[in-house]
Design brief:
single chain, alpha+beta, BirA Bifunctional Protein, domain 2, 5-stranded antiparallel β-sheet, 10 helices
Length: 214
């Protein structure tokens, strides 16, 4: 694929001089990535309420980074569900070291984080049913990942049976793809199916968070 050919060369020559002199290689990779991202977006948009998609630029923000290499070694796509009625978003990452699709709640604000935790504690059976649903188990092994606090968050019992979820500060789902899987003819369909498998999770979270707007 043009994507991986370009990214492999870029990883070995991550500087402006090389990048400027290999614009044709970059544009071929960007066009291929854009086509894949458009196809995934269209498939998801046909079955969910989503906002416009965003394809991330390849240029890194160097302002607060010790790493001054100017370019990312991946292509990324993100699009949100239509807020406020539908919460959550979808992400696709194609890189030389890692390819994955997923989403969730990366940095919920203080109020949203509290509401999520309260809903999980109050509706424990419903949330466990979501995490044990066929699609979540098949595509994400029934597991959330993300940063968490070391003990019980303020206002919650450390012995709560849902404490493993309540400790989380991020609520993320991720499904890795090998390069061979990305290069396969069915990758677009598979990626879209994986993203849509998150719907029960997002429906639960929307129920927890949408009351803010009622």
């Amino acid at each position: 694929m043009h994507i991986f050919n370009f990214l492999e060369e870029l990883s070995k020559n991550n500087n402006k001089e090389w990048f400027d002199s290999h614009q044709e290689l970059f544009l071929l990779a960007k066009e291929e990535a854009t086509h894949i991202f458009n196809e995934i977006y269209n498939r998801v948009a046909a079955q969910d309420y989503v906002s416009d998609m965003k394809i991330y630029r390849i240029y890194r923000d160097l302002r607060f980074s010790k790493d001054k290499t100017p370019y990312k070694t991946h292509f990324g796509l993100y699009f949100q569900r239509q807020q406020p009625q539908y919460r959550g978003g979808y992400y696709v990452h194609l890189g030389i070291n890692e390819c994955f699709v997923g989403g969730g709640f990366f940095n919920p604000n203080k109020e949203d984080l509290l509401r999520i935790r309260q809903e999980i504690a109050a509706e424990a059976d419903a949330f466990k049913a979501v995490m044990e649903s066929e699609g979540i188990v098949r595509e994400f092994d029934g597991k959330l990942f993300g940063d968490e606090v070391k003990t019980a968050p303020k206002g919650f019992d450390k012995n709560d049976p849902m404490i493993a979820y309540l400790r989380k500060k991020q609520f993320l789902l991720k499904r890795d793809f090998s390069r061979a899987e990305v290069e396969a003819d069915n990758f677009v369909a598979r990626a879209a199916d994986v993203l849509l498998a998150m719907r029960p999770f997002y429906d639960f979270m929307t129920e927890a968070l949408f009351n803010d707007y009622e």
